[in-house]
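Tutorial, part two.
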Amino acid sequence: MKYKGTIVSSVYNTLLNKGVNSLSKMEIERIIEVPPKQEMGDYAFPCYILAKELKTAPDRIAKELS
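Running the prediction step on this input gives:
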C-alpha cells in the first residue's frame, strides 16, 4: 500500500487531461479508499462523484481512469 501517492498523481493528471479540475490532489487522496476485500484491489476511487460533472456513467469513468 505504498503506492497511494503514485495513484493519486495518476488520477489527478488523468482528470486534468479530461478537463476536470474540481478535485485537488489532497481531495483525491482523501477520497481514495481501501476496498473491504483484498481481492477487490489495493485501492478504490469512487467515480460516482464525477458522474454528474462529466455527464458520464461511473463505470465508464472507471474504465477510462484505469
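DSSP finds four helices and no strands in the chain. In part three we will examine how such features are distributed along the chain.
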